What does this fold into?
Amino acid sequence: MGQATFKVELSRQPNADSTRSVRIRITRDRQHAYLTTGIRLIVSDGRGSEWNEKYEDRKSNWVKTHRRSAQYNQQIRDTWDELEELAGDNPTLSASELKRKYTARQEAKPVEVGAIAGPPRLFADFVGQVIDRYRGKGKISYALLVGYAWNCFKSYAGPDLSDSRILARPFVHSFDAWLRSATRKNGQRRYSPKTIRDYFKVLEHAFSLAKEEDLFTIRNPFKEIDLYVPPVKQARPEATSIMQLLELELEKAEWVNARNTFLLQFLLNGARVSEVVRLEWSMVKKGSVTYLPSKKAAKWKTVPRNEWLDKILAHYPQEGRYVLPWLSEDFHLLTKEQQYYALKDAKDRVNAALWTISRRHKLPRLTTHMARRAFADAAIREHGDLRMVQHLVGWSSIAIAEHYARELQQEDIEEASRQIFARLSDKQ
It folds into this structure.
């Protein structure tokens, strides 16, 4: 057989959300096979296009202007390199067989891909192992958070990452002070209190893991930082207002899909956005919708169908695998990391469209998480049984329901106080 060649290109047909999928064309003996990378881009004739039409060879960048351009280009190069190596080791395989062998190899990769032989010499080495372990287990979001926190810590520490220096309590406290005082060029804070709390939490957890493996005996230096973050109140629409979103006349298909995604989250007992965009037609039964929540602690959720749910489902033809058009048909064949970024892209698109809808129709800023929180509020107010609310929403602990109930009670107390003084003012 001849030598295999590869080319990165866009799918010929656009997806339902008007994006185009990036794929690698495998050619051998004039036979083609197409490997989807899971990357979906906005392609247009104007400056908003995320596809680089002028790329010349594999050293060029195929993706431009996207917030993850560098990462996507590196992902394509890594896939290309692995395909090239596979083709060299298997000169008798056809293009289709090469694609199948590549896919099987991705699915068969071991869980502990980041395991490193021998104990790490420094805490810095151990953090690198922790990141690789989480990535290998498919916990991509947590691996990225640890990576962000560690890169920030390294940028402050400089080249000297010796344990005696970076694990000293004065150094950790000075890092905390630097995070709280760092500003951007426009004078705004670079790191929010929540970001600082998240960074210290993951570094504290990494050190705890190191102590469990008997790498350190000293006290955890990341545990002594005050991580309290005052709660931020965000205006949330009432349940009746949410259902009125169905009556909005929206101009673009992406806005309609985002609105329907938001409503499905609310109607499916506060489902997460990742659960809704992955909703398959096989999960939609005659009288109910059944799906598996993305969190391991939750069990299968079955939600009875109602008139609002039926009205949204009627928007979409029962074709293909997924109800909503945010994911490609071969999403389930992608690696866990590719699936994570595909879901992240879908969530970002939904939130961007919801923000546009909020501004154009003068609504409180809508976000995907708000749909879940609004259902929880409605369930607590209407039902009152916190244990039942926990099972409805799918929380792993009743403590979350209790926390939300206390917040609602505090809001009611503040509203009652405002009404009392408003009436006194009217009487005067």
